[in-house]
Sequence to fold (306 residues):
Amino acid sequence: MPRQEGPLPGAGGDALLLVSPSAGRGRAQRFAPATAEALRRAGFALSIVVTGSLREATEQARTAAPGSVVAALGGDGFLGAVAAGARDSGAVLLPLAGGRANDAVRRLGLPLNPVRAVRAFPRYEVTEIDLGQVNGRPYLGVAHVGFDALANEYGNAARIGLGPFVYLYGGLKAFRAWRGVTFTLSVDGSERVFPGWFVAVGNGGQYGGGLRICPRAKVDDGLLDVVSLGRSSFMTVVVTFLLSYRGRHLGQPGIAAALGSSVRITADEPLDVYADGELVGPLPAVMTIAPRALKVLMPADSPALH
Fold:
């Protein structure tokens, strides 16, 4: 498990707190003042930026000094955007839960309360982790296409405050709208064509408010975990997603799993690809892995590590 040697950042060092104004129906902004105070108490010379877009979040992290801390307070898409910039600058990412689902923070093993996460700072280690890339765009958790992406779209559009259950709501709506699709999936050059429901390509492996869709995924193994669901009954799909909350769905009928460093997906119908809960764009999609590309503050016993 690769880690950076030396003391933790802090004790008078620089930190940049990036805040998403829209994440979690305002959750990130509500937690921002107390989170900033906790960072100051931890010994950081702090700058705070409330970002106007994911692109700005990436650019702000890209300008951070190498080895400084960039604390990202927002949802999964926001954390992925900040990670892209921190990778380029050499800054150390501290992911903080400011969204609705907060799957990246859950999977990495940090507290869901961002103030408590900062207070637990002395227990973290600086760890180098992988970044997934879909059509060149970095992501921390899962890139996916199919029925689950449609559920993601409906969940993002929901105006009701359901927290992480908003994606369950999106899934119920997606069942009514879904039509059969045939995927062509290539993993490290090995191709498979199948009618099915979805293809998920995991780095961290968790999405949708706790669905461990790629339960074997580790963020430090240099590989992508690919899980797909082929032709299945409505009930099998429901059971598969229910079992995935505990990562126990891999033995379900129609489920296939593979490991690789390069994944290509096409389909016979127009479909959009999502990553870290955000729209990337239409198929075709190529996913690759950038090993040990990002420095992250996280617990040494994180479930996302080998």
About this structure: The first strand starts at residue 14 and ends at 19.
